[in-house]
Every structure is written in C-alpha cells, then in structure tokens.
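re: ur question from yesterday

yeah so i grabbed the chain u mentioned. its 340 aa long if i counted rite. heres the sequnce exactly as i have it in my notes:
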Amino acid sequence: MNLDRLTTLCNCFGVSSNEQDVAEIMKPAFAENADQIVRDNLGSIFAYKKSKHENAKIFMIACPMDECGMMVSKVNDDGTLTFITLEDIAVSSLLHQRVTILCRDHSMITGVITNRKNVLEGGSEAKSIHDLVIDCGYTDKADLKVLPGDLVSYASNFFVENNIVYAKALNPRVLNEVCMEVVENLKEHELDFNLAIGAMSQSTIGFRGTKTATYTIQPDAALALCVFDNGKPNAKLNGGVVVGMYDKGMIPSKRLINDFKGFTSANGYFGMIGNDSSFIHKTVKGCPTVAVGIACGNTGSANEMVAINDIDALVHTLTDYILHLNNEMITDFGFGEHHV
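ran it thru and got these structure tokens back, copy pasting raw so excuse formatting
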C-alpha cells in the first residue's frame, strides 16, 4: 500500500461538493496507467482502460470521493458558528472535535465544536446538533471571514499503529487509494472489455454523483466499493474482503455475486444500510451490481480505523478478479439480448 499517498488523501479537504483536491491527487495515477480519464459534471473521476474488442462491454468499479462533513448555517453575534451536518453524524462524534473551515477565499480557519449551552447557560448536556456551535476563538462575528454555506471538515491527525490506520475520512480515502493501486497493477494488461475505475463526487450525501457517474460511464456490470461497520458479523478489522449479500437498497445480482464469491474468499455481509450499489444497479438500463469492501471502525468520526492487511487484500482481490473476467462473462451477468 502507498501509505504516503493515503496520508495525503486523508489530510486533504474533500467534503461533498469540494472534492477537487482529491481528484487532483488521483489524476496522475489514472493518467499514467489508463488510456484516458473520464469526468462527469459534478467532478467524479474515472480511469478508463479501452479494449480492442469490437463489442466490448463496460465493467465499472466505483467508490465515493466525498468525506463526511458539515456546513456553516449561521455566523452568530458572539463569533461562534451554527452548522448543519451533511451526513447523519452522531452528536457524540462531534462534540469537542477540532475542525477546519474552508472559506470562500480558499483560506482555512480552525475551530472546535463545543456545547453552546456551556457558553450561554453555564453547562448542560448536548442532546442534538442544535446544542452545538463551532468556536474559532473570535468574540465578534465582524472579525470572521466565514460565511453561511462554507464547508467544514474534521481536523484530526493521521497515524498508524499495530497495522491499524487511524484518520479522518478513511471512508472513502482508503477506497480512493485502492482504485489507484488497482489501476497501477493493471497497467501492462490488455483486457477484452472496457474498464472504468474511479471515484464519484457527492456520493456520501444522497448518492448524487453515483447517478451522474453511472450515466456517464453506462456500465454493463459493476462493483461498488464501500466500507462495512466494524464489529458486525463478517465485517471485522483484519478480517479481509467483505461482499454485501443484502441491504435495504439492493438485492445484488446473483450471477455476478456467485461469480465473485466463487472466485474469492470474501466474507458475506447482511445489513440494512444502503450504499452506492443501491443506485448504480437501477440507473440507465439497469446494471448488475455487487457491493465490495472492507471493515471500518468509527465511521463518520474524526478517528476512523482500517487495517492495512484489509486494504492490501482488497487491492489484490480486485486486481485478480478483473484479470479473471472477460467480455462473455460480463454479458452473462445481465439479462439482455444475450439471453433472449
């Protein structure tokens, strides 16, 4: 694993609608190891390997590009900032966390999420996001250049200990790194199908880029890369690759999942929370899709956790699986003209 590049990815600012820095980090690996780069109008970025096959199908591997974050909703007279979350983040994950605010002039301001009632009422338990504010150390809003609509990211440190990576935004940064490493592994290989592999903007909040990227790529089959909550059955740190067997957003393609499970040793995961596969599989003409990933602890917090062994396992599994596929197999995953 390229630990230095993962560190850079995690430390950059990539909250939904402002993923440009992430795309710039991914672009060199895609440009050097694929035939072209494909973008959509929301900023999603894909490496595209073209086949020489005349009737080549398109296989897509896609992950989110945007990290969990917040948005300033009001600059208060006392210099504190009221905010909203752009994802379902627990109050317990937010309180006392250091954050970075991206201002309109692209400068950064540091703040700490605190309990507003501690300031105004002498102390009270924070029960909802409405009890929280960001304190940047200012006492008058006139001194702040922050405006409503400015984005906010966690500001935590990246470190590794005992094979575990701790950082903000590991979901999706680990998956972004996996995509780059798979493309690098495939540089010298010719495929008889077209491969699009990359990251989708504004996926974390409402799967917006998931839809636009799928319309752009028009895949015939796909793997949606995601993380699964650590500690749940078959999703544990150092537990290897995980494949989604069911969630409330999608029942995976049986032909595709049977082939993937038969080829790999991935653990089957049953859950209720949907992911990008929920929208990829029902976009355009329909696309056989399976969710694949690894376990991640403390998702949505400033200190997410993943195992390096799991990252490497996912890279190797995806590389080998792509080399196992061919145009005929991708055709067989669907129910189109081939099966008439």
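noticed a couple things. Residues 31 and 37 are 6 Å apart (CA to CA). also The first strand starts at residue 36 and ends at 39.
anyway ttyl
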